[in-house]
Amino acid sequence: MKGNSYFSRKLHSLLGIIPLGGFIVVHGLTNYQAFERGPEGFEQGVHLINSLPLIPLLEIFGIYLPLLFHGIYGLYVAYQSNSNTGRFQYGRNWAFTAQRVTGVMTFVFVFWHVYQTRMQIYLGNITHEELGSTMNHIASNPVYFVLYVIGVLAAVFHFSNGLWAFLISWGITIGPKAQRISSYICMGVFVILSALFILSLIAFSGDEFKEAASAALAFTNIG
Amino acid sequence: MAQTTVANKTVKFIITRQDTPDSKPYTEEFEIPYRANMNVISGLMEIQRNPKKVDGASTAPVCWDSNCLEEVCGACSMVINGKPRQACSALVDKLEQPIRLEPMRTFPVVRDLVINRERMFGALKRVKAWIPIDGTYDLGPGPRMAETKRQWAYELSKCMTCGVCLESCPNVNDRNSFIGPAAISQVRLFNAHPTGEMNQEERLDALMSDGGIEGCGNSQNCVRSCPKGIPLTTSIAAINKDTTKHLFKKWLGV
Ligand code: HEM
Ligand code: SF4
Ligand code: FES
Fold it and tell me: Is any ligand 3 atom within 6 A of the Cβ of residue B151?
């Protein structure tokens, strides 16, 4: 593997979908429970995930290491690219530049977001059950809310457009027609995932999540 | 000589010049008499005949490369009004004035508009873009190619190594080792040939080593810029499929 950028690049591409793409979809669906079913729904989602076996291993090998490899190698890939959208104003060329810009934005956002949430649990400042009220703190601050919306849109665009590129990188969509159809599907993915995340942010900013911690405690007591 | 100059009508050029490969580029403006049906090359020839700038001061004639003058050799590629294309098929009547000429900076500039496209020929050598049929005895006729296949393969064979696709690609630059779209499409061409196919793994292996196909980032500028209308992005995706299959076959030891 040493010194062959073909392998590194293939790994980078694969990790973008498995596991990272899978993770962002599950993450979007879990958060959406906050909108659809309120604090209890969200707590159940968090609870369900935390009841999976071998959680620390899943987190390390399923999220942290793939994210670090894809993220750091992705920064290098972005560094290796020029942007020539001034000369070539085609939609796909804009998407090429946007893929790199949103990659860097996602990098910053993910580290900040993990620091605010998962890291606080590691540090012992909050518990899993208090995540709902932590998110309420964040989402009810207008500045944080806007930054989160920007970060979420960047990450979701990066994933959706990356899915389109992934299908080409692995030779799944070959002709222009297949690539056009897949671009419509990926746009659909972008709209749906964005809606899931933004609706959950709106839900988190609501007052019922202020009491999320106590509600969650009640839930764990019952369950 | 027949009088073809239209009274008072002129053509303005702004040309990026560079005296040596390492010296600093600078621009010079020219204004030459208009003639019917001029193209950029005939404009450059006029400047060569009378190398005077717009202010009347003389200067060294502008250097450029050209050969076929019918858009089949690729030698005269340059950036014309911001877009890389062939100067011989760039008609003055269809260009906005002043006409801005620049060298394709993706390649090393030799002088003025002359560039060195050696990296493209090097790439063709690396991927073995030929069909090995030399031997010590007559191997007889090879397998036939199906007509339906020949038709699309012919489109790929129109590549003139002009470099426009590399110039348009945001991933062909000093920081990136991407081989560029043209050579990948040539691998597809030679791997489609019934005799060439016998060596297809060698070509795929070349594209799966450092500075091969992996640098493609799907900006798809190449397919929109190629003067020959070569379906470059289809070629790249098709070779992505072939290299992926080849990768798994090697891992599984098939
Ligand atoms: C953490 C910061 C990240 C950075 C700096 C980053 C950077 C990049 C870059 C530069 C590319 C373009 C590669 C190319 O065009 O060949 C890319 C592709 C991709 N990224 Fe990311 N990325 C990050 C996070 C993510 C995340 C969280 C996901 C999943 C949700 C993801 C999914 C993808 C996918 C699917 C591709 C397409 C792969 C392909 O072209 O075959 N990335 N990334
Ligand atoms: S593929 Fe098209 S643009 Fe690229 S070198 Fe060949 S003819 Fe020129
Ligand atoms: S001189 Fe051959 S392409 Fe222009």
Answer: no
CB–CB contact B233 A176 (8 Å) = yes
Which residues, 6 or more positions from B222, have their beta carbon under 8 angstroms from its beta carbon? B165, B168, B169, B181, B232, B233
| The CATH homologous superfamily of the domain defined by B5-115 | Beta-grasp domain (3.10.20.30)
Say which ligand is closest to the CA of B69. 3
CB pairs under 8 A between A and B: 103
Rounded Cα distance between A167 and B222, Å, is: 19
Domain carrying residue A117: 10-222
Query: Residue A173 maps to which CATH number?
Result: 1.20.1300.10
- With cut-offs at 50, 70 and 90, classify the pLDDT of residue B178: very high
Across B74-88, average pLDDT = 98
Q: What pLDDT is recorded for position B239?
A: 98
Q: What is the CATH number of domain B118-252?
A: 1.10.1060.10
pLDDT per residue as tens digits for the range A56-79:
999 999 999 999 999 999 999 999
Q: Is residue A3 part of a domain?
A: no
- Going by C-alpha positions, the residue among B10, B91, B82 that lies closest to residue B47 is B10
Question: Domain residues of chain B, as ranges?
Answer: 5-115, 118-252
End-to-end CA distance of chain B, in Å? 71
| Residues of chain B positioned with their CB less than 8 A from the CB of A9 | 214-215
Domain count, chain A: 1
CA B215 to chain centre: 18
> What ipTM does this complex have?
0.92
- Can you give the pLDDT at residue A220? 45
Q: Give percent above pLDDT 70 in chain B.
A: 97
- For residue B71, the CA-to-ligand 2 centroid distance in Å is 11
Going by pLDDT thresholds of 50, 70 and 90, the confidence category of residue B5 is low
Ligand 2 atom with minimal separation from the B160 CA = 7
